[in-house]
Design brief:
Elongation Factor Tu (Ef-tu), domain 3; mainly beta; five-stranded antiparallel sheet; 13 strands; 172 residues; six-stranded mixed sheet; 40% strand; 1 helix; SH3 type barrels
């Protein structure tokens, strides 16, 4: 399991006083400010959120030590992580951190190995899962929901993927 969990990403500068747009990946978006100092993935840099408020489709954050737009612009696309032990324990059996899915084997319903999970994305219309095929080639992207991914088994290191029905291209 991942030692650090990605909880947010810094976006573009917001205004001229050093605030930034922030995308939170926590169940309660404002909770991201409650986990203490956030870190880069390698732990080399820490960031403390001094203030956080809702914006339009994002949060607006003031980060300690960032006082002008130029400094804020240097932080664009920095992913923010928190050590797993600072996060609340998972209480429901079908709940997990997305970071725990990375590296799991992806199998079809009949047990065929499809590849391994390399990413979970959300571009605004719900989570999607990206799978790197076992035999190479382009990645497989499927909706991450109970219909398409009915089984997630962290303990055995696998997910089950119901492949979309393939249809023949219609010629005209």
């Amino acid at each position: 399991m991942a030692e650090r969990i990605r909880v947010a990403r810094i976006g573009a500068a917001h205004g001229i006083r050093g605030e930034v747009r922030l995308w939170s990946f926590t169940e309660d978006p404002l909770a991201v400010a409650q986990y203490g100092p956030l870190e880069t993935e390698d732990g080399a840099r820490q960031f403390e959120i001094e203030a956080l408020r809702p914006g339009k489709d994002f949060l607006v954050a003031r980060i300690a030590g960032v006082t002008d737009r130029s400094a804020a612009e240097t932080l664009r696309n920095v992913d923010l992580f928190v050590p797993r032990d600072r996060l609340p324990p998972l209480e429901e059996a079908d709940t997990f951190y997305h970071a725990d899915l990375i590296g799991l084997a992806a199998e079809s319903e009949d047990g065929e190995v499809l590849g391994s999970v390399i990413a979970i994305h959300n571009f605004g219309a719900g989570d999607i899962i990206e799978i790197e095929p076992a035999g190479g080639g382009p990645t497989l992207i499927v909706p991450f929901n109970e219909t398409t991914v009915p089984t997630v088994d962290i303990e055995t290191g696998r997910i089950v993927v119901v492949r979309p029905i393939e249809t023949e291209a219609r010629g005209e």
